[in-house]
Amino acid sequence: MKIRLKKQRGFLLIAVLVIIVLASMVALSLLFRMRAEQAAFAASAGSEQAWYAAMSGINQAMHFAKSAPYDPAVWENNPSAFRHHHVLDDGSDNWYFTVFSPAPPEEETVRYGIVDESRKINLNKATAEMLPRCTVLSPQQIEAITGSSLTNTPSMADPLAVENLLGPVRPHFSTLDELLKLPGFTPGVIYGEDANHNYQLEPNEDDGVLLFPPDDSDGQLFLGLREVATVFTYQFDIAADGSPRFQLNSTNRSVPEFIIPEQTAAYIEAAWSNKVIFKSPADLLEAKMIKGPDGKEIAFDARVGPQELPAILDQLTTTFEARLVGLININTASVKVLQAIPGINEAKAELIVQTRESLATELKQSPAWLYSEGVLTVDEFKLAAPHITARSLQFRFNVLGYALPSGRYRIYEVVIDTADKAPQIIYLRDITRFGLPFALPAADEIENVQTQI
Description:
Layout: H1 2-67, H2 72-75, H3 79-82, E1 85-89, E2 94-102, E3 110-111, E4 115-116, E5 121-122, H4 139-146, H5 159-166, H6 187-191, E6 229-230, E7 234-236, E8 246-247, H7 262-273, E9 289-291, E10 297-299, H8 309-315, E11 316-317, E12 323-325, E13 328-329, H9 335-338, H10 346-356, H11 369-372, H12 378-384, E14 388-389, E15 394-404, E16 409-417, E17 424-430, H13 443-452
């Protein structure tokens, strides 16, 4: 009996131990699941908070871009507005954003601000003659973009012929990444050596072909096609004050003299009576003759010189398109891009960049300064005029939303559009997977930076 009782007690003890182990396993499983859910929630909440911090940076960029379309000094490199900007203290973390964009190669760092897309050439508008002047694309790549080659592209003196030729076969691009669908295009063509999209030269981006990506090891960061090309630029065909422009080629033969000098209006009416078609409002600049239907020239002075030219360019139009696509901003474009514009060679492009540095902001609100300051001749200006602007309405930048001291963050590549009344995001790409663009500062370092600013 004693042996049997001992066996029963031993069995009960084992059963109790098994139950305790099973209960412990269930408890541990529940605890692990709770902690996993808590960690997932914390990560999700942190990611969402980082998103909102980044969105604060985007809203800041929209505000500055909308407020000063003619003044790059406001938004191009403004650390006080865009670097380590405090958003919120949630009790455990302080949240910040930093908006940054690429700087010229000689600066060897990023700029805390935004870059206008109008300083670039629009691939949806550029011709096969323009692209070789500002890119390193092969003839085959250029033909894939434009739908034509240098051998069959008509003279740039006849832009209507170019549009008629390219219109039916030319592909349209919504983003630069769509170029990857074309033969001969790789991420390296579009993004150059900047493998982690932080606009800074890393050791692996300057070591030849030892580590990814392949690079030329010249000590400068090559940003690829995105440095000089865009697909986003456009402007509404309206005057600077938002009023409609007068159509020079309209069937309405009543010239609004309140915006056009009387003598200029008389010239336009005489041109109409002789069936003249205007290619650009710049055709009126220093115009003194009208060619009649018999081919003979008739003396008739339009009286449009340097003083009248800004209003002529702002108030008149010759296109029937609601949007003017691909105009290049002469106040921000690089020499490389400027020399791609018809009528502007490399020497003239360098002169433009030199001259604009000392111009007053008011003067730079119209492309007319290219002529009034003696940079371009009459003929050169008339060739360039259909392709240029003096304001920027679409902007690109990266924005980093982050928390201290936890170090949680998100980073986005953004393009905004301020052409309409309400600015909007037209391109948003999460590039957090590429890692931090630069080391996050300590809280006291941010205080020191903000004090210096």
